[in-house]
Amino acid sequence: MFIGLTGYNHESSAALVDIDGNLIDFYKEELLSRVKGDKSFPKRSLKRILEMNNLDISKIIEITFYERPLSAYITILQTSGKNMPKSLPLISHQCRNFNKSSVACYLDIAKTYPGLEKKLSYCDHHLSHTLTSLAYSPKQNEICSVVVDGFGDRSTTSISLVHNHHNIVELWSCPYPFSIGLFYSAITDFLGFQVNEGEYKVMGLSSFGNENSEIAKKVSQLIKWDDNKNKIIQDMSFFKYHVDPEVSFSQELVNYLGNPRNPFKQLLPDDDDFQHYADIAKGAQLAVVKILRSIFSYAYQLTNCNDFLFSGGVAMNSASLDELASLDFIKNIFIPPSPGDSGSAIGAAYYSYLKSNFDKDIFLSKPSLFPSKFNSNNQRKLASKIIESNYKIIAKDKKSILKKSADLISKGEIIGVIIGNSEIGPRALGNRSLICDGTNKNAVNFLNTKIKKRSPFRPTAPVMQESVARKYFVVRDELIECYKTMSATAQCKKESESLNFPTTHIDKTARIQIIEKDHLLYNLLDELKNYNIEILANSSLNLSGDPTSFDLIDTFMISSRSPLKYIIADFALLESIK
Amino acid sequence: MKNKKLSKEKENIRILNVLLETACAEFGSALEMLIACKGADSVNIANGYFQHAKDEYNHTNTFLSILSKYGKKSPAKISRKYRFNTNSVITKGYVSTDGYLIETMSIKDFIAYVYTNELLAKESFDGILKLLKPHSDEGIQISKIMDDELRHHGLAEKYFLKYYPRLQPWQLMCYRLRETVMNRGRKFYDKNLKFLDKVLTPLYFFIAYLVGKVLKFIDMNEFDRKGKNLMDIKSKSVI
Predict the structure, then answer these.
(1) Contact yes or no for A35 and B227 at CB 8 A
(2) Which residue from A179, A414, A567, B14 has the fewest beta carbons nearer than 10 Å?
């Protein structure tokens, strides 16, 4: 068995791959600790992996950490060293937090499971991303991998050519501190949202922006691609993330764009300053899309490949995918369901699997989209008093659950779904979801603002069967795999009804999910045909600021803290009696 | 006039700080109770912890909404420092990096901890109430939270005596005294750490300056990956 670990920088996680190269188990630490974006050493994930699979450390062949910790540590310090004395706060912070950085990985493993540290190995950060994408890709040889994130262990963006699983050659990289991910995070910070959490809010906000506005143009000039030298150019005087641990943008950026947004003031479309901030978000989005197009064009120039793996945190920018896929040389883009750091625990586990099978031809079988093991029967008994005091069971067998749920949805109700194992990525794909009629404006609005308490400008994704997606949206075959994991937006067809769906964003796009045949939501959509409902709105099963629900108790907590009345669990459809 | 404005700003910062810390503490408690619920050994206890966790989540929301009210009054430059981030419950120490209390303590100690800390929380809310004025809208909300804390304290005591009936009231007093001393100790440590931090900053910067200078001499180009097969790089290398 092989274990992959991530942590210390972003969401930490652990993955388990067996000796036949199958992903057996995976947990994000936040699911278990209930702290959103938990980046501490993933001890709960590691413990659960060992317990759920009846393993002791003697059965672990190797444990791989997803980056080279000293490289990451020194690269940041060295860059800061070039910017002294401005960077003294960051260097001081780095030195004082040495034991909290990924360098402590070895000691943390030794403390948690003595002896396991002897089996520890390290994989390059961007290679971990590449291997995660490769595992989910139907094509695994002669394919180009583009990784774009905030910061890896030496670079921020890279292009590699995957000849086969044992031969992955890096062809180009962008050195820290020039970074598309950190640029986007700095703008996120400027717009008053939390770094590493609010980036998707910026993406949603950008749809309201005017690309011809002066301010959008100004922002889009902050980071560029140099066509002659094939490199990213960024004027670092506007940013501080490379010199200060507290602030990511400088006073120059404030002088250039005006005051940053007060994070406590709610951003509403009717507010006076809404358009100003939406235009800033638009500028950032334009810059990212433009630069990604240049990087993919350069990747094509270097590799002559038409198929691409795309990963790293920036690959979660689903709004850029439709434009990228329009590049004429692109045949397919494959994005793993968890392209950020947490998903790269899978790549790290595959790394040691591949290393130990270096002499074999390998094809990795596609891992599950729902690998985080959970069996509701185990917790149902413990939660029986909670269920008894707060819910009544209104349907028990699958057929009546589907029938009753369809009826409720047609009446505008919202249902929480907690079935089977949990999703791998940040997007709810139907096992941990809040769903309602995707064409009912009031229901979608209630889900968005009353249950989840999200900003009204943020869209909710629609889920549908493939035939329905092709009826209403411009479905690109290049992105067909991405639609299954909600990784890309699609344009509404001209003069289509979908333009008026509440799940359609202001820019006439939607982050569609095409549901696969064996899923409960597919069957529910079949049942909903009796009510002429073809689309469900699908949002993650959580309240704003919390991680997605992992188990029954988390779900009951959501229901008790919000107006959510109905829950589909593996064993029943429950109605709250509060 | 300028002085008055400055002192008002200072007061606002103080309130923001207190509200943020309290929201973090309440959120930390909510998580502790939620995890305790999942690890409970009986359905009744699980239900009890569940209700307790729900109350603590609601308290967090109350403090966050008051924080938001005060945050709006401050300039963005200041208020952005007081944004609530769930991860800060770990970095600020409200949840230990070693794990949740139920994961690291005996059940007896855990109940004693809840029993005494609910009372200590109530005491610290007295201070917040004075700061925000008791008859204000916020004051009324906090009074309700204080009632909840007293109720939790009572329930914990009942639970404690039910499961450990041989425990005498004086032993409960000892638990309470121990927690009070530890709580004061934590506050003293935190306050002095902040003070020490200020005093030692020039020294930290001097060390940082030396580190920055020394690192300039390390040549990282040797570890450049361009043109290399990434699968061939030594897997035991940390660089």
Answers:
(1) no
(2) B14
CATH class of B2-167: mainly alpha
Reported confidence tier of residue B167, pLDDT bands at 50, 70, 90: low
Using an 8 Å CB-CB cutoff, list chain A residues near B231. 127, 165-168, 351, 354-355, 358
A465, A525: one domain: yes
Residues A293 and A345 in one domain: no
A165 has a chain B CB within 8 A of its CB: yes
Q: Are residues A53 and A192 in the same domain?
A: no
Question: Which pLDDT score is estimated for A361?
Answer: 86
| Full strand arrangement of the beta sheet holding A167-175 | A167-175, A155-164, A143-148, A307-311, A332-334
Same domain for A311 and A195? yes
pLDDT tens digit string along B31-60? 999 999 999 988 998 999 999 999 999 999
Question: What is the domain extent for residue A473?
Answer: 376-576
Asked casually if ipTM beats, i.e. exceeds, 0.90, the reply is yes
From chain A, pick out residues whose CB is under 8 angstroms from the CB of B95.
33, 35
Domain boundaries, chain B: 2-167
Distance from CA of A540 to the nearest CA of B (A): 18
Q: How far apart are CA A435 and CA A406, in angstroms?
A: 11
Shared domain for A326 and A348, answered yes or no, is no
Q: Is A192 helix (H, G, I), strand (E, B) or coil?
A: coil
- Whole-number Cα distances in Å, A158 to A225, A226, A325, B76: 14, 16, 19, 36
A259 & A407 share domain: no
Contact B231 A354 (CB under 8 A): yes
| A323 in a structural domain | yes
Taking the Cβ of residue A171 and every Cβ of chain B, the question of whether any pair is shorter than 8 Å is answered with yes
- Binary contact (B212, A123; C-beta < 8 A): no
